[in-house]
Design a protein that fits this description.
The complex is a heterodimer of chains A (about 270) and B (about 290).
Chain A: H1 3-7, H2 10-42, H3 53-62, H4 66-101, H5 106-121, H6 124-135, H7 139-164, H8 167-175, H9 180-191, H10 193-219, H11 222-232, H12 236-268
Chain B: H1 3-7, E1 30-41, E2 44-56, E3 61-65, H2 72-79, E4 87-92, H3 97-102, E5 106-109, H4 121-132, H5 134-137, H6 139-152, H7 168-179, E6 186-190, H8 198-212, E7 218-223, H9 226-232, E8 235-239, E9 246-251, H10 266-281
Parallel strand pairs in B: 3-7, 3-8, 5-6, 6-7
Antiparallel strand pairs in B: 1-2, 1-4, 8-9
Classes of the chains: A mainly alpha (about 270), B alpha/beta (about 290).
């Protein structure tokens, strides 16, 4: 695996980035704006709370107080991005580590599965206050909530992928005197790279859900809280823009993972 | 089978001996005593191997032939330490298969080539050397050896190709080269040529013999093909259907070094007939009409 072939040249990357920006960001944003128009006009919603993209544009770009309006939502988006990133990284790390641990023993797999299922079965709404009490009202709780959302699909997809690694590969490494560690490094990890990317694609939007959830129920910051408070204070431009941005964030993150997979993995295979 | 061998007349007598002045210290003697193995399928217990004993002197190419499902692959997997007998003992050069595995003294090639799809041909061949630590302690020697093996199995120009880009025969060549990368005590071949076409199979058989020339380890091949077994082996174990027992142990005293011409000799023909008849006679009634 040559580094040059994996990462490509600078101009290659520039081209890829432009393609990503067009296909992965601008296109879905345009699509979302269209849906937004459709919902506001097609459903004949009361003009009182149904703010069209045009109204939002005025509110955030051309009105006298645009700068201040913008600052609120940009700051909230930044917070949510950070919160989602924390949950995503933690959930992926724990999910991958737990899945790869199962390479070492069947018993570990049997012991971890119930926890993985519990993380999914207990509603997040019910768990979140408990998490806040346990980990405090700060970033640790935000991270834990996001991680729980990301962990489950990652763990399940990875265990599935590990089961699909051919048995003959394991036997081969065993007969040639390889250790369990060799099995992990030379077989399990390279054999599941695709599943790691698939997990990340599912996990990224999940992390955004987890982040908004934690912001609403725990920290009172970010888009998750802005949506709730804007609804209560009738700042409907903020509300519509928040929904638009958080949806776009999810889609862009999903596309980003897909783009990274294409740019690295598919080049070497 | 070494170069020295070729220069001298074949000494048929040495085949049964432990020492070989031309090849030096021979490895891979097998002693199996009273090994038994049963498989449980739902409620029924199927005896696969029942108190089988056999001895193979070191440095031999031994083939195990028998009807499908007779347990010959199970026996090979026991030599590899991948399956374990319910009773009895197996020792290779006086050691257990586990000990040999830990010491990187076993090598294996499977029916499906079992190449790692994300590794190139050369990286697949290098795998056993990575597992034994040789690739780390002697990277230069490892690179040379891998290059040599790639050439030896005729895959020059394909060193950096991925398995998916290779034909079945080329995949098996890679698998054989990988098995030869380490210097094992015992080389185990589990029907490595069963899934390639007949012509390729013949060619791979001839290539295998030349690859093994001069090597001191023992080789055990499991195969369905009587002709392949006779052509390659110095010793043949003809097995019965389940529960498996040794119907006949045969010393194959065809002239060496073997060339494909040997397959056209009367001797070869008679041996093939004899082994086939032995196998056929031992088939259970229910399968009385089948081939092999």
């Amino acid at each position: 695996m040559k580094v040059g072939r994996v990462f490509g040249s600078a101009s290659d990357w520039l081209l890829q980035a432009v393609v990503f920006l067009a296909v992965g960001v601008i296109a879905p944003a345009a699509g979302l704006v269209a849906v937004w128009f459709g919902v506001v006009n097609g459903l004949h919603l009361p003009a009182y709370f149904a703010k069209s993209p045009v109204a939002a544009w005025q509110y955030f770009v051309s009105s006298p107080s645009a700068a201040a309006n913008r600052q609120v939502i940009v700051q909230a988006l930044g917070t949510t991005g950070r919160d989602a990133a924390l949950g995503f990284v933690a959930g992926m790390l724990v999910g991958l580590a737990a899945a790869y641990l199962t390479v070492f023993s069947e018993r570990i797999k049997a012991a971890l599965m119930p926890f993985a299922l519990a993380a999914r079965a207990v509603p997040l709404v019910a768990m979140t206050p408990l998490i806040a009490l346990t980990f405090g009202y700060g970033l640790s709780s935000v991270t834990v909530v996001g991680a729980i959302v990301v962990f489950f699909p990652t763990f399940v997809a990875m265990v599935e992928a590990l089961n699909a690694v051919p048995r003959s590969g394991e036997e081969l490494i065993e007969v040639f005197g390889g250790t369990r560690w060799d099995r992990l490094i030379k077989l399990a990890v390279p054999g599941t790279v695709r599943a790691v990317f698939a997990s990340a694609r599912i996990g990224a939007p999940g992390a955004v859900i987890g982040a908004t959830f934690a912001e609403w129920l725990i920290t009172g910051r970010g888009i998750g809280y802005l949506m709730v408070s804007a609804s209560e204070t009738s700042d409907f431009n903020d509300l519509w823009a928040s929904v638009f941005l958080v949806t776009l964030l999810s889609i862009v993150l999903y596309n980003l993972v897909a783009f990274l997979q294409k740019a690295t993995l598919d080049r070497v295979r | 089978m070494s170069d020295a061998d070729r220069a001298e007349p074949v000494d048929a007598g040495r085949r049964s001996g432990d020492a070989d002045p031309q090849r030096g210290n021979l490895l891979g003697s097998i002693a199996a005593h009273d090994i038994s193995k049963t498989f449980s399928r739902r409620q029924t217990v199927v005896p696969v191997i029942n108190q089988l004993s056999l001895e193979v002197p070191p440095g031999q190419f031994t083939s195990i032939v028998g009807p499908s499902g007779c347990g010959k692959t199970t026996l090979l997997r026991m030599f590899a330490g991948l399956d374990h007998p319910d009773g009895g003992t197996i020792s290779i050069d006086g050691k257990s298969p586990e000990e040999l595995k830990r010491g990187h003294r076993l090598a294996i090639a499977f029916q499906d080539a079992a190449l790692l799809p994300w590794r190139s041909v050369e990286a697949n061949i290098r795998l056993p050397l990575e597992l034994s630590g040789a690739a780390r302690t002697d990277p230069k020697g490892t690179a040379e050896l891998v290059e040599h093996l790639v050439t030896l199995v005729g895959l020059q120009g394909f060193a950096s190709a991925r398995p998916a880009q290779l034909s079945g025969g080329m995949q098996q060549r890679t698998s054989i080269a990988r098995a030869l990368a380490v210097e094992p005590a015992l080389l185990l071949l589990d029907e490595p040529f069963a899934s390639v076409d007949e012509i390729t199979r013949r060619r791979l058989n001839v290539e295998l013999l030349s690859l093994l020339a001069g090597r001191t380890h023992g080789t055990v091949l499991v195969t369905h093909s009587v002709a392949e077994a006779l052509f390659l082996s110095q010793r043949l174990l003809v097995m019965s259907a389940r529960p498996m027992r040794v119907l006949e142990e045969l010393k194959v005293e065809l002239p060496e070094p073997r060339s494909p011409d040997v397959m056209r000799t009367r001797e070869f023909f008679e041996l093939t007939e004899h082994v086939t008849a032995t196998l056929y006679a031992a088939l259970p009634e229910s399968e009385g009409g089948s081939s092999t």
